[in-house]
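Below is how a single chain appears once it has passed through the pipeline. First comes the sequence as given, then the structure the pipeline wrote out for it. We keep one example in the README because the format questions we get most often are answered faster by looking than by reading.
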Amino acid sequence: MNKSRVSTVTHFVLLGFPWLKKEIILFLMILLIYSLTLTGNMAIICAVRWDPRLHTPMYMLLANFPFLEIWYVTCTVPNMLVNFLSKTKTISFSGCFIQFYFFFSLGTTECSFLCVMAYDQYLAICHPLHYPFIMTGRLCGILVSLCWLISFLGHLILLFFISQLPFCCPNITDHLLCDVDPLMALSCAPKPIIQHVFHSVSSLIIFLTIFYILGSYSLVLRAVIQVPSSAGWQKDFSMVMYVTPTSGNSIAMQKIITLIYSIVTPVLNPIIYSLRNKEMKFALRNVLCRMRTSQTS
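Resulting structure:
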């Protein structure tokens, strides 16, 4: 490696959409979606917190999921919005790796939550009589805690090794946020092994999540088909929530897909969790009533 090309990188430049002339339009759109995401997910958290009837393991999971989504969008969107209005479009070295760490740790936690929620739905529909004795508040708390701990501790190790790599100038990355491939492209190390390790771990997490969710909901579907009444079908399917991750390879498409799974998907989750759930809709109405009462008083 030529040491003359190596310099101390103090910041990175995130190009974003350099071909977009009026980034103010994209700025306003993302700001609107971000505001709706915060409002919708906070409403779900408040609904579960204030309604005693929702103090059950299933709704404990639902309350953790919007809490995760709020942090998931907050670790990337504010800096993204600033860069849309900035000419330099920079992010500090430490800020880049902090964003990288939280973005992927929260993404892994989301995959873990989806598996736990699939397991919860499997127990509720396939073993309804045993459900209250298996999915207790204690077990739910343990599962939720493991989702957070394993995801954040696992990525802490990967973050340490990636941040120790030597980085060369120019420090310009053609992306919206600090992703692993653009960062590895700036490294002076020839094809760092940690990149292959990261991709292997990420692929394993995604495929295990997909297969586990498909397996769980296949059993749920088989149980639902055996329900004789149409009312039973509607009740069971209203409990099923399913989200699949997305991925992309090309640089142009990767930016668009990044916008979808990092910004659009979190704003849709409150709709998915509330419109097909009578208890949640009733609790959300109570939240709105409380807000109106506090404003008038």
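The two ends are 69 Å apart (CA to CA).

See the next section for the split statistics.
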